[in-house]
Amino acid sequence: MANYYSDHPEFDFYLNHPEMKRIVELKERNFTDKDKYDDAPVDFDDAIENYKRVLDITGDIAANILEPNSEDVDLEGPHLVDGRMHYASKTYENLDATRKAGLWGISMPRRYGGLNLPITPYSMASEIVATADAGFQNIWSLQDCIETLYEFGSEEQRKKYIPRVCAGETMSMDLTEPDAGSDLQRVMLKATYDEKQGCWLLNGVKRFITNGDSDIHLVLARSEAGTHDGRGLSMFIYDKNQGGVTVRHIENKLGIHGSPTCELVYKNAKAELCGSTRMGLIKYVMALMNGARLGIAAQSVGVSQAAYNEALAYAKERKQFDKAIVNFPAVYDMLSRMKAKLDAGRSILYQTARYVDIYKALEDISRERKLTPEERQELKKYSRLADAFTPIAKGMNSEYANQNAYDAIQVHGGSGFIMEYKSQRLYRDARIFSIYEGTTQLQVVAAIRYITNGTYLTIMKEMLNNEVSEDMAQLKERVLKLVELYEQALEYVKQADNQEMQDFLARRLYDMTADILMSLLIISDASKAPELFAKSANVYVRHAEEEVIGHSVYVKNFIAEELVNFRAE
After folding, report:
1. By 3-state DSSP, what share of the chain in percent is helix, strand and coil, each rounded to 5?
2. Dihedral angle sign, alpha carbons of residues 465, 467, 470, 471
Protein backbone atom coordinates (compact mmCIF):
# COMPACT_ATOMS: atom_id res chain seq x y z
CA MET A 1 0.00 0.00 0.00
CA ALA A 2 1.34 3.43 -0.97
CA ASN A 3 2.38 5.93 1.67
CA TYR A 4 3.44 9.42 0.64
CA TYR A 5 5.70 9.71 3.68
CA SER A 6 7.51 6.38 3.87
CA ASP A 7 7.84 6.20 0.08
CA HIS A 8 10.14 9.24 0.21
CA PRO A 9 13.27 8.91 2.40
CA GLU A 10 13.99 12.62 1.87
CA PHE A 11 11.65 13.43 4.77
CA ASP A 12 13.70 11.44 7.28
CA PHE A 13 16.86 13.07 5.95
CA TYR A 14 15.51 16.52 6.83
CA LEU A 15 14.13 15.33 10.16
CA ASN A 16 17.68 14.25 11.04
CA HIS A 17 19.19 17.66 10.27
CA PRO A 18 21.50 18.87 13.11
CA GLU A 19 19.35 21.97 13.73
CA MET A 20 16.41 19.75 14.65
CA LYS A 21 17.99 19.15 18.06
CA ARG A 22 17.77 22.84 18.89
CA ILE A 23 14.26 23.07 17.44
CA VAL A 24 12.99 20.15 19.53
CA GLU A 25 14.72 21.47 22.64
CA LEU A 26 12.99 24.84 22.26
CA LYS A 27 9.60 23.53 21.19
CA GLU A 28 9.44 20.94 23.98
CA ARG A 29 10.87 23.30 26.65
CA ASN A 30 13.35 20.60 27.62
CA PHE A 31 10.53 18.00 27.65
CA THR A 32 8.59 19.49 30.57
CA ASP A 33 5.30 18.19 29.13
CA LYS A 34 6.26 14.56 29.71
CA ASP A 35 4.94 14.70 33.27
CA LYS A 36 1.58 16.16 32.21
CA TYR A 37 0.66 14.43 28.95
CA ASP A 38 0.94 10.76 28.06
CA ASP A 39 1.74 11.51 24.41
CA ALA A 40 4.51 14.02 25.17
CA PRO A 41 8.06 12.89 24.24
CA VAL A 42 10.63 12.18 26.94
CA ASP A 43 13.71 13.05 24.86
CA PHE A 44 14.86 14.10 21.40
CA ASP A 45 14.69 10.62 19.84
CA ASP A 46 11.17 10.14 21.19
CA ALA A 47 10.12 13.50 19.74
CA ILE A 48 11.44 12.59 16.28
CA GLU A 49 9.62 9.25 16.47
CA ASN A 50 6.43 11.16 17.33
CA TYR A 51 6.86 13.32 14.23
CA LYS A 52 7.45 10.25 12.11
CA ARG A 53 4.26 8.61 13.40
CA VAL A 54 2.23 11.70 12.53
CA LEU A 55 3.81 11.88 9.07
CA ASP A 56 3.22 8.16 8.52
CA ILE A 57 -0.48 8.60 9.28
CA THR A 58 -0.59 11.65 7.01
CA GLY A 59 1.17 9.75 4.23
CA ASP A 60 -1.27 6.86 4.47
CA ILE A 61 -4.35 9.09 4.37
CA ALA A 62 -2.89 11.19 1.54
CA ALA A 63 -2.08 8.21 -0.67
CA ASN A 64 -5.16 6.10 0.04
CA ILE A 65 -7.97 8.59 0.67
CA LEU A 66 -7.10 12.11 -0.49
CA GLU A 67 -5.50 11.19 -3.82
CA PRO A 68 -8.20 8.67 -4.84
CA ASN A 69 -10.84 11.33 -4.03
CA SER A 70 -9.05 14.14 -5.85
CA GLU A 71 -10.51 13.56 -9.31
CA ASP A 72 -14.11 13.53 -8.05
CA VAL A 73 -13.46 16.66 -5.99
CA ASP A 74 -11.98 18.43 -9.02
CA LEU A 75 -14.99 17.54 -11.17
CA GLU A 76 -17.67 18.39 -8.61
CA GLY A 77 -16.22 21.37 -6.78
CA PRO A 78 -18.05 23.32 -4.06
CA HIS A 79 -21.67 24.52 -4.33
CA LEU A 80 -23.52 27.64 -3.20
CA VAL A 81 -26.88 26.93 -1.56
CA ASP A 82 -28.91 29.69 0.14
CA GLY A 83 -25.91 31.83 0.97
CA ARG A 84 -23.82 28.94 2.28
CA MET A 85 -20.88 27.10 0.74
CA HIS A 86 -21.05 23.32 0.54
CA TYR A 87 -17.88 21.37 -0.21
CA ALA A 88 -17.66 18.68 -2.88
CA SER A 89 -18.97 15.38 -1.50
CA LYS A 90 -15.55 13.72 -1.28
CA THR A 91 -14.10 16.73 0.53
CA TYR A 92 -16.28 15.82 3.51
CA GLU A 93 -14.70 12.35 3.45
CA ASN A 94 -11.26 13.99 3.47
CA LEU A 95 -12.21 16.22 6.38
CA ASP A 96 -13.59 13.27 8.31
CA ALA A 97 -10.45 11.18 7.75
CA THR A 98 -8.05 13.93 8.82
CA ARG A 99 -10.16 14.79 11.86
CA LYS A 100 -10.35 11.20 13.04
CA ALA A 101 -6.59 10.92 12.58
CA GLY A 102 -6.02 14.00 14.76
CA LEU A 103 -4.32 15.99 12.00
CA TRP A 104 -5.70 19.38 13.06
CA GLY A 105 -4.11 21.96 15.31
CA ILE A 106 -0.86 20.14 14.68
CA SER A 107 1.46 22.95 15.79
CA MET A 108 -0.57 24.06 18.80
CA PRO A 109 0.50 23.35 22.40
CA ARG A 110 -0.86 20.24 24.07
CA ARG A 111 -2.70 22.29 26.68
CA TYR A 112 -5.11 23.38 23.94
CA GLY A 113 -5.45 19.92 22.40
CA GLY A 114 -2.68 20.25 19.81
CA LEU A 115 0.23 17.97 18.93
CA ASN A 116 2.93 20.60 19.57
CA LEU A 117 4.75 19.81 16.32
CA PRO A 118 7.36 22.28 15.03
CA ILE A 119 6.83 24.03 11.69
CA THR A 120 9.30 21.72 9.92
CA PRO A 121 7.37 18.44 10.31
CA TYR A 122 4.11 20.37 9.90
CA SER A 123 5.41 21.64 6.53
CA MET A 124 6.26 18.05 5.62
CA ALA A 125 2.68 17.03 6.36
CA SER A 126 1.50 19.97 4.26
CA GLU A 127 3.69 18.89 1.35
CA ILE A 128 2.37 15.33 1.63
CA VAL A 129 -1.26 16.47 1.58
CA ALA A 130 -0.57 18.72 -1.43
CA THR A 131 1.00 15.81 -3.33
CA ALA A 132 -2.36 14.08 -3.01
CA ASP A 133 -4.65 17.07 -3.62
CA ALA A 134 -3.52 20.71 -3.70
CA GLY A 135 -7.11 21.93 -3.34
CA PHE A 136 -7.68 20.04 -0.12
CA GLN A 137 -4.30 21.15 1.15
CA ASN A 138 -5.63 24.71 0.99
CA ILE A 139 -8.53 23.86 3.29
CA TRP A 140 -6.45 21.74 5.65
CA SER A 141 -3.39 24.02 5.85
CA LEU A 142 -5.45 27.09 6.76
CA GLN A 143 -5.44 25.65 10.26
CA ASP A 144 -2.13 27.52 10.36
CA CYS A 145 -4.11 30.76 10.82
CA ILE A 146 -4.48 29.70 14.44
CA GLU A 147 -0.78 30.52 14.89
CA THR A 148 -1.63 34.22 14.55
CA LEU A 149 -4.46 33.98 17.07
CA TYR A 150 -2.14 32.07 19.41
CA GLU A 151 0.57 34.72 19.10
CA PHE A 152 -1.57 37.84 19.38
CA GLY A 153 -4.91 36.85 20.90
CA SER A 154 -5.78 36.89 24.60
CA GLU A 155 -5.59 33.77 26.76
CA GLU A 156 -9.38 33.75 26.86
CA GLN A 157 -9.48 33.71 23.06
CA ARG A 158 -6.88 30.96 22.93
CA LYS A 159 -8.91 28.76 25.24
CA LYS A 160 -12.06 29.50 23.27
CA TYR A 161 -10.85 28.94 19.70
CA ILE A 162 -7.69 26.82 19.61
CA PRO A 163 -9.32 23.60 20.94
CA ARG A 164 -11.97 23.96 18.25
CA VAL A 165 -9.34 24.05 15.49
CA CYS A 166 -7.52 21.14 17.11
CA ALA A 167 -10.81 19.24 16.91
CA GLY A 168 -11.03 19.93 13.17
CA GLU A 169 -12.93 23.18 12.72
CA THR A 170 -11.82 25.10 9.62
CA MET A 171 -10.31 28.56 9.29
CA SER A 172 -9.85 31.35 6.77
CA MET A 173 -8.09 34.69 6.58
CA ASP A 174 -10.39 37.35 5.15
CA LEU A 175 -8.07 40.01 3.79
CA THR A 176 -8.71 41.04 0.17
CA GLU A 177 -11.61 43.12 -1.13
CA PRO A 178 -12.91 44.08 -4.60
CA ASP A 179 -10.80 47.28 -4.53
CA ALA A 180 -7.94 45.93 -2.39
CA GLY A 181 -5.93 43.05 -3.78
CA SER A 182 -2.22 43.16 -3.07
CA ASP A 183 -2.60 46.73 -1.76
CA LEU A 184 -4.18 45.84 1.58
CA GLN A 185 -3.89 49.42 2.82
CA ARG A 186 -7.04 50.06 0.77
CA VAL A 187 -9.16 47.63 2.82
CA MET A 188 -12.42 49.36 3.77
CA LEU A 189 -14.52 46.65 5.49
CA LYS A 190 -15.88 48.68 8.39
CA ALA A 191 -15.48 47.69 12.04
CA THR A 192 -17.45 49.66 14.64
CA TYR A 193 -17.65 49.01 18.37
CA ASP A 194 -21.22 48.59 19.66
CA GLU A 195 -21.33 49.66 23.30
CA LYS A 196 -24.78 48.16 23.84
CA GLN A 197 -23.81 44.69 22.60
CA GLY A 198 -20.25 44.90 23.90
CA CYS A 199 -18.70 43.71 20.66
CA TRP A 200 -17.41 44.88 17.30
CA LEU A 201 -19.69 44.80 14.24
CA LEU A 202 -18.28 44.19 10.76
CA ASN A 203 -19.89 45.51 7.57
CA GLY A 204 -18.70 45.26 3.98
CA VAL A 205 -17.49 42.83 1.35
CA LYS A 206 -14.51 40.48 1.12
CA ARG A 207 -13.45 38.88 -2.16
CA PHE A 208 -11.19 36.00 -3.22
CA ILE A 209 -11.36 34.44 0.26
CA THR A 210 -9.96 30.92 0.31
CA ASN A 211 -12.25 28.57 2.25
CA GLY A 212 -14.40 31.64 2.85
CA ASP A 213 -17.29 29.92 4.62
CA SER A 214 -15.02 28.47 7.30
CA ASP A 215 -15.89 28.05 10.96
CA ILE A 216 -13.45 30.66 12.32
CA HIS A 217 -12.25 33.72 10.38
CA LEU A 218 -9.42 36.18 10.93
CA VAL A 219 -10.67 39.40 9.35
CA LEU A 220 -8.78 42.56 8.40
CA ALA A 221 -11.08 45.55 8.86
CA ARG A 222 -10.94 49.33 9.24
CA SER A 223 -11.55 50.18 12.87
CA GLU A 224 -10.44 53.82 12.78
CA ALA A 225 -13.01 56.09 11.11
CA GLY A 226 -11.64 58.58 8.62
CA THR A 227 -8.39 56.70 7.95
CA HIS A 228 -7.31 55.50 4.53
CA ASP A 229 -4.03 53.70 5.16
CA GLY A 230 -2.68 50.68 7.02
CA ARG A 231 -2.61 52.48 10.35
CA GLY A 232 -6.39 52.38 10.56
CA LEU A 233 -6.69 48.60 10.19
CA SER A 234 -7.19 46.00 12.92
CA MET A 235 -7.56 42.23 13.05
CA PHE A 236 -10.79 40.59 14.18
CA ILE A 237 -12.02 37.09 14.98
CA TYR A 238 -15.37 36.16 13.45
CA ASP A 239 -17.15 32.98 14.56
CA LYS A 240 -19.50 31.55 11.93
CA ASN A 241 -21.84 30.44 14.73
CA GLN A 242 -22.58 34.12 15.40
CA GLY A 243 -24.10 34.64 11.94
CA GLY A 244 -24.01 37.87 9.98
CA VAL A 245 -21.93 36.68 7.00
CA THR A 246 -23.27 35.18 3.81
CA VAL A 247 -21.52 33.83 0.74
CA ARG A 248 -22.56 35.86 -2.29
CA HIS A 249 -20.51 34.03 -4.88
CA ILE A 250 -18.08 31.12 -5.31
CA GLU A 251 -15.46 31.75 -7.96
CA ASN A 252 -15.30 29.43 -10.99
CA LYS A 253 -11.54 28.87 -11.08
CA LEU A 254 -9.00 27.37 -13.45
CA GLY A 255 -7.70 24.97 -10.80
CA ILE A 256 -7.71 23.88 -7.14
CA HIS A 257 -11.42 23.24 -7.57
CA GLY A 258 -11.78 21.57 -4.17
CA SER A 259 -10.77 24.81 -2.45
CA PRO A 260 -13.73 27.21 -2.42
CA THR A 261 -12.85 30.84 -3.17
CA CYS A 262 -15.68 33.01 -1.91
CA GLU A 263 -17.07 36.51 -1.99
CA LEU A 264 -18.45 37.30 1.46
CA VAL A 265 -20.96 39.90 2.61
CA TYR A 266 -20.66 41.09 6.22
CA LYS A 267 -23.82 42.62 7.72
CA ASN A 268 -23.44 43.60 11.37
CA ALA A 269 -21.39 40.46 11.95
CA LYS A 270 -20.32 40.23 15.58
CA ALA A 271 -16.57 39.95 16.03
CA GLU A 272 -13.81 40.10 18.63
CA LEU A 273 -10.71 42.24 18.39
CA CYS A 274 -7.52 40.18 18.07
CA GLY A 275 -4.61 41.96 19.74
CA SER A 276 -4.49 45.75 19.59
CA THR A 277 -6.25 48.16 17.27
CA ARG A 278 -4.27 49.71 14.39
CA MET A 279 -1.88 46.73 14.28
CA GLY A 280 -3.90 44.58 11.88
CA LEU A 281 -1.87 45.18 8.74
CA ILE A 282 1.37 46.44 10.23
CA LYS A 283 1.95 43.40 12.45
CA TYR A 284 -0.69 40.68 12.37
CA VAL A 285 -1.23 40.32 8.61
CA MET A 286 2.52 40.18 8.10
CA ALA A 287 2.66 37.23 10.51
CA LEU A 288 -0.29 35.59 8.73
CA MET A 289 1.23 36.10 5.29
CA ASN A 290 4.66 34.77 6.19
CA GLY A 291 3.06 31.59 7.51
CA ALA A 292 0.86 31.35 4.42
CA ARG A 293 3.85 31.82 2.10
CA LEU A 294 5.70 28.96 3.73
CA GLY A 295 2.51 26.92 3.32
CA ILE A 296 2.39 27.72 -0.42
CA ALA A 297 6.06 26.71 -0.70
CA ALA A 298 5.15 23.33 0.81
CA GLN A 299 2.10 23.07 -1.44
CA SER A 300 4.29 23.84 -4.46
CA VAL A 301 6.84 21.17 -3.56
CA GLY A 302 4.00 18.68 -3.14
CA VAL A 303 2.65 19.40 -6.63
CA SER A 304 6.18 19.34 -8.06
CA GLN A 305 6.53 15.87 -6.58
CA ALA A 306 3.19 14.75 -8.02
CA ALA A 307 4.11 16.15 -11.46
CA TYR A 308 7.44 14.36 -11.42
CA ASN A 309 5.77 11.13 -10.32
CA GLU A 310 3.29 11.30 -13.20
CA ALA A 311 5.92 12.19 -15.79
CA LEU A 312 8.37 9.48 -14.70
CA ALA A 313 5.71 6.75 -14.55
CA TYR A 314 4.40 7.65 -18.01
CA ALA A 315 7.91 7.88 -19.51
CA LYS A 316 8.74 4.39 -18.25
CA GLU A 317 5.50 2.95 -19.64
CA ARG A 318 5.15 4.79 -22.95
CA LYS A 319 7.02 3.28 -25.90
CA GLN A 320 7.89 4.92 -29.21
CA PHE A 321 9.91 3.17 -31.91
CA ASP A 322 9.98 0.05 -29.69
CA LYS A 323 11.74 1.96 -26.91
CA ALA A 324 10.49 3.42 -23.62
CA ILE A 325 10.61 7.20 -23.99
CA VAL A 326 12.40 7.53 -20.62
CA ASN A 327 15.52 6.46 -22.52
CA PHE A 328 15.33 9.34 -25.02
CA PRO A 329 17.79 12.16 -24.16
CA ALA A 330 15.16 14.85 -24.78
CA VAL A 331 12.89 13.18 -22.24
CA TYR A 332 15.40 12.27 -19.54
CA ASP A 333 16.77 15.80 -19.78
CA MET A 334 13.32 17.10 -18.84
CA LEU A 335 12.90 14.52 -16.09
CA SER A 336 16.32 15.21 -14.58
CA ARG A 337 15.59 18.95 -14.49
CA MET A 338 12.21 18.31 -12.89
CA LYS A 339 13.83 16.20 -10.18
CA ALA A 340 16.62 18.72 -9.60
CA LYS A 341 14.14 21.59 -9.17
CA LEU A 342 12.06 19.42 -6.85
CA ASP A 343 15.03 18.47 -4.67
CA ALA A 344 16.55 21.96 -4.57
CA GLY A 345 13.15 23.45 -3.85
CA ARG A 346 12.54 21.01 -1.02
CA SER A 347 15.96 21.82 0.42
CA ILE A 348 15.26 25.55 0.66
CA LEU A 349 11.74 24.87 1.96
CA TYR A 350 13.01 22.95 4.96
CA GLN A 351 15.97 25.26 5.51
CA THR A 352 13.44 28.11 5.76
CA ALA A 353 11.14 26.05 7.99
CA ARG A 354 14.00 25.41 10.40
CA TYR A 355 14.78 29.12 10.60
CA VAL A 356 11.11 29.84 11.29
CA ASP A 357 10.98 27.12 13.94
CA ILE A 358 13.85 28.52 15.96
CA TYR A 359 12.74 32.14 15.98
CA LYS A 360 9.06 31.27 16.56
CA ALA A 361 9.94 29.03 19.51
CA LEU A 362 12.11 31.73 21.04
CA GLU A 363 9.35 34.30 20.54
CA ASP A 364 6.94 31.96 22.30
CA ILE A 365 9.35 31.46 25.19
CA SER A 366 9.74 35.25 25.48
CA ARG A 367 6.03 35.44 26.36
CA GLU A 368 6.69 33.15 29.32
CA ARG A 369 9.98 34.54 30.60
CA LYS A 370 12.73 36.99 29.80
CA LEU A 371 15.17 35.69 27.21
CA THR A 372 18.88 35.55 28.00
CA PRO A 373 21.17 37.85 25.98
CA GLU A 374 22.31 34.81 23.98
CA GLU A 375 18.70 33.83 23.24
CA ARG A 376 17.87 37.37 22.15
CA GLN A 377 20.76 37.28 19.69
CA GLU A 378 19.62 33.88 18.45
CA LEU A 379 16.08 35.19 18.00
CA LYS A 380 17.32 38.19 16.04
CA LYS A 381 19.53 36.03 13.82
CA TYR A 382 16.90 33.44 12.92
CA SER A 383 14.11 35.97 12.53
CA ARG A 384 16.22 37.78 9.95
CA LEU A 385 17.14 34.54 8.17
CA ALA A 386 13.49 33.44 8.05
CA ASP A 387 12.46 36.83 6.68
CA ALA A 388 15.15 36.63 4.00
CA PHE A 389 14.54 33.01 2.98
CA THR A 390 10.71 32.97 2.97
CA PRO A 391 10.29 35.01 -0.27
CA ILE A 392 12.88 32.78 -1.97
CA ALA A 393 11.21 29.57 -0.80
CA LYS A 394 7.74 30.72 -1.81
CA GLY A 395 8.68 32.42 -5.07
CA MET A 396 10.99 29.77 -6.47
CA ASN A 397 8.97 26.75 -5.44
CA SER A 398 5.78 28.22 -6.87
CA GLU A 399 7.57 28.88 -10.16
CA TYR A 400 9.10 25.39 -10.16
CA ALA A 401 5.71 23.79 -9.53
CA ASN A 402 4.42 25.55 -12.65
CA GLN A 403 7.45 24.49 -14.67
CA ASN A 404 7.30 20.88 -13.51
CA ALA A 405 3.56 20.65 -14.17
CA TYR A 406 4.17 22.08 -17.65
CA ASP A 407 6.94 19.56 -18.32
CA ALA A 408 4.81 16.68 -17.03
CA ILE A 409 2.27 17.43 -19.76
CA GLN A 410 5.08 17.67 -22.31
CA VAL A 411 6.39 14.25 -21.32
CA HIS A 412 2.88 12.87 -21.81
CA GLY A 413 2.69 14.41 -25.29
CA GLY A 414 -0.84 14.51 -26.69
CA SER A 415 -2.13 12.42 -23.79
CA GLY A 416 -1.17 15.21 -21.39
CA PHE A 417 -3.72 17.45 -23.08
CA ILE A 418 -6.49 14.96 -22.40
CA MET A 419 -8.61 15.63 -19.32
CA GLU A 420 -8.54 11.97 -18.23
CA TYR A 421 -4.86 12.28 -17.34
CA LYS A 422 -3.84 13.73 -13.99
CA SER A 423 -1.14 15.97 -15.44
CA GLN A 424 -3.64 18.52 -16.75
CA ARG A 425 -5.12 18.93 -13.25
CA LEU A 426 -1.69 19.45 -11.72
CA TYR A 427 -0.99 22.07 -14.39
CA ARG A 428 -4.25 23.88 -13.63
CA ASP A 429 -3.73 23.63 -9.87
CA ALA A 430 -0.15 24.91 -9.97
CA ARG A 431 -0.93 28.10 -11.86
CA ILE A 432 -2.24 29.94 -8.80
CA PHE A 433 0.81 29.23 -6.63
CA SER A 434 2.89 32.06 -8.10
CA ILE A 435 -0.07 34.45 -7.72
CA TYR A 436 -1.78 34.06 -4.36
CA GLU A 437 -0.33 34.97 -0.96
CA GLY A 438 1.91 37.41 -2.82
CA THR A 439 2.84 37.09 -6.49
CA THR A 440 6.38 36.16 -7.46
CA GLN A 441 6.87 39.83 -8.29
CA LEU A 442 5.99 40.71 -4.68
CA GLN A 443 8.40 38.04 -3.42
CA VAL A 444 11.08 39.86 -5.43
CA VAL A 445 10.08 43.10 -3.71
CA ALA A 446 10.34 41.36 -0.32
CA ALA A 447 13.77 39.96 -1.15
CA ILE A 448 15.40 42.90 -2.91
CA ARG A 449 16.54 44.73 0.24
CA TYR A 450 18.40 41.60 1.35
CA ILE A 451 19.95 41.45 -2.12
CA THR A 452 21.10 45.07 -2.23
CA ASN A 453 22.35 45.23 1.37
CA GLY A 454 24.50 42.13 0.86
CA THR A 455 22.68 39.80 3.27
CA TYR A 456 22.36 36.98 0.74
CA LEU A 457 25.92 37.51 -0.49
CA THR A 458 27.21 37.15 3.07
CA ILE A 459 25.17 33.96 3.51
CA MET A 460 26.58 32.55 0.27
CA LYS A 461 30.14 33.22 1.37
CA GLU A 462 29.49 31.62 4.75
CA MET A 463 28.04 28.56 3.02
CA LEU A 464 31.06 28.35 0.74
CA ASN A 465 33.20 27.93 3.86
CA ASN A 466 31.31 24.77 4.82
CA GLU A 467 32.97 21.42 4.18
CA VAL A 468 31.54 19.28 1.39
CA SER A 469 32.29 15.74 0.27
CA GLU A 470 35.08 15.06 -2.19
CA ASP A 471 32.54 14.24 -4.90
CA MET A 472 30.84 17.63 -4.43
CA ALA A 473 34.02 19.74 -4.25
CA GLN A 474 34.13 20.41 -7.99
CA LEU A 475 30.51 21.57 -7.99
CA LYS A 476 31.24 23.88 -5.10
CA GLU A 477 34.11 25.45 -7.05
CA ARG A 478 31.78 26.07 -9.96
CA VAL A 479 29.27 27.78 -7.66
CA LEU A 480 32.09 29.94 -6.29
CA LYS A 481 32.55 31.36 -9.81
CA LEU A 482 28.81 32.07 -9.95
CA VAL A 483 29.05 33.97 -6.68
CA GLU A 484 31.81 36.12 -8.20
CA LEU A 485 29.59 36.92 -11.21
CA TYR A 486 26.68 37.66 -8.87
CA GLU A 487 28.76 40.05 -6.79
CA GLN A 488 29.94 41.87 -9.93
CA ALA A 489 26.38 42.22 -11.23
CA LEU A 490 25.15 43.45 -7.87
CA GLU A 491 27.94 46.02 -7.65
CA TYR A 492 27.14 47.25 -11.17
CA VAL A 493 23.50 47.86 -10.24
CA LYS A 494 24.41 49.60 -6.98
CA GLN A 495 26.93 51.89 -8.69
CA ALA A 496 24.32 52.94 -11.26
CA ASP A 497 22.35 54.47 -8.38
CA ASN A 498 19.12 54.38 -10.38
CA GLN A 499 16.02 53.13 -8.57
CA GLU A 500 14.04 52.41 -11.73
CA MET A 501 16.92 50.41 -13.15
CA GLN A 502 17.24 48.46 -9.89
CA ASP A 503 13.51 47.70 -9.91
CA PHE A 504 13.68 46.59 -13.54
CA LEU A 505 16.61 44.23 -12.92
CA ALA A 506 15.37 43.01 -9.53
CA ARG A 507 13.83 39.79 -10.88
CA ARG A 508 17.11 38.77 -12.52
CA LEU A 509 19.03 39.49 -9.32
CA TYR A 510 16.43 37.51 -7.38
CA ASP A 511 16.73 34.53 -9.73
CA MET A 512 20.53 34.62 -9.48
CA THR A 513 20.29 34.77 -5.68
CA ALA A 514 17.94 31.81 -5.52
CA ASP A 515 19.92 29.73 -8.04
CA ILE A 516 23.11 30.12 -6.00
CA LEU A 517 21.56 29.57 -2.57
CA MET A 518 19.71 26.48 -3.75
CA SER A 519 22.84 25.14 -5.47
CA LEU A 520 24.77 25.44 -2.21
CA LEU A 521 21.96 23.79 -0.26
CA ILE A 522 21.61 20.82 -2.61
CA ILE A 523 25.41 20.38 -2.67
CA SER A 524 25.38 20.26 1.13
CA ASP A 525 22.56 17.70 1.09
CA ALA A 526 24.33 15.61 -1.54
CA SER A 527 27.49 15.59 0.55
CA LYS A 528 25.59 13.92 3.38
CA ALA A 529 23.25 11.70 1.32
CA PRO A 530 24.65 11.21 -2.20
CA GLU A 531 22.27 8.33 -2.82
CA LEU A 532 19.37 10.81 -2.54
CA PHE A 533 20.73 14.04 -3.96
CA ALA A 534 23.98 13.63 -5.96
CA LYS A 535 22.27 13.46 -9.36
CA SER A 536 20.09 16.45 -8.59
CA ALA A 537 23.08 18.44 -7.33
CA ASN A 538 24.91 17.87 -10.61
CA VAL A 539 21.89 18.80 -12.71
CA TYR A 540 20.86 21.78 -10.58
CA VAL A 541 24.30 23.40 -10.60
CA ARG A 542 24.32 23.17 -14.40
CA HIS A 543 20.87 24.76 -14.41
CA ALA A 544 22.17 27.52 -12.11
CA GLU A 545 25.19 28.14 -14.34
CA GLU A 546 22.91 28.48 -17.34
CA GLU A 547 20.77 31.07 -15.56
CA VAL A 548 23.34 33.00 -13.53
CA ILE A 549 25.77 33.47 -16.41
CA GLY A 550 22.97 34.63 -18.69
CA HIS A 551 21.52 37.03 -16.12
CA SER A 552 25.00 38.33 -15.33
CA VAL A 553 25.65 39.22 -18.96
CA TYR A 554 22.23 40.89 -19.22
CA VAL A 555 22.69 42.96 -16.05
CA LYS A 556 26.27 44.08 -16.69
CA ASN A 557 25.41 45.23 -20.21
CA PHE A 558 22.27 47.08 -19.21
CA ILE A 559 22.19 50.85 -19.55
CA ALA A 560 19.62 52.80 -17.55
CA GLU A 561 18.77 55.05 -20.50
CA GLU A 562 17.44 51.99 -22.36
CA LEU A 563 14.51 51.65 -19.94
CA VAL A 564 12.36 53.76 -22.24
CA ASN A 565 12.52 50.94 -24.82
CA PHE A 566 10.86 48.52 -22.42
CA ARG A 567 7.88 50.63 -21.40
CA ALA A 568 4.51 49.54 -22.75
CA GLU A 569 2.98 51.84 -25.36
Report:
1. 65, 10, 25
2. negative
Write out pLDDT tens, residues 411-455: 999 999 999 999 999 999 999 999 999 999 999 999 999 999 999
| Residues 29-84 pLDDT 10s | 999 999 999 999 999 999 999 999 999 999 999 999 999 999 999 999 999 999 99
DSSP classification of residue 40: S
DSSP of 159-190: HHHHHHHHTT--EEEE--BTTBSS-GGG---E
| 467 class by beta-carbon count within 10 Å (0-12 exposed, 13-18 middle, 19+ buried) | exposed
pTM (2 decimals)?
0.97
SS3 state of residue 209: strand
| DSSP structural state of residue 371 | P
Please give the helix or strand (H or E) that residue 196 lies within, else none.
none
Strand partners, 172: 217
440 vs 191: CA distance, rounded Å: 31
Calculate Rg over the CA atoms of the chain: 24
d(CA 18, CA 48): 12
